[in-house]
Amino acid sequence: EVIGAMGGGEVAPLTDSELQRIGKAVADEQYRRQRE
User: Fold this and answer.
1) What is the pLDDT of residue 7?
2) Do residues 4 and 11 lie in contact, with contact meaning Cβ atoms separated by under 8 Å?
3) Which of 35, 36, 2 is closest to 22 using CA atoms?
4) Where are the alpha helices (DSSP H) in the chain?
5) Would the pTM count as exceeding 0.70?
6) Quick one: 22 exposed, middle or buried, by C-beta within 10 A (0-12, 13-18, 19+)?
7) Quick count: other Cβ atoms within 10 Å of Cβ 21?
């Protein structure tokens, strides 16, 4: 899976821990937006 939208166009290999951290950040952001 490649996440292109977040990296400003450049794609870097991500470790599992980095993917988990990014996924959590995205989920937290979406959660906050829903709460507003």
Assistant:
1) 56
2) yes
3) 2
4) 16-35
5) no
6) middle
7) 12
SS3 31: helix
Token duo for residue 9 = 């166009």
> What's the rounded Cα separation, in Å, for the pair 14 and 2?
9
User: Rounded distance, CA 36 to CA 12, Å?
Assistant: 33
pLDDT of residue 1: 55
Distances (CA, A) of 27 to 2, 5, 21: 17, 15, 10
Q: What's the confidence (pLDDT) of residue 20?
A: 92
| pLDDT tens digit sequence for 5-35 | 555 555 667 788 888 999 999 999 999 999 9
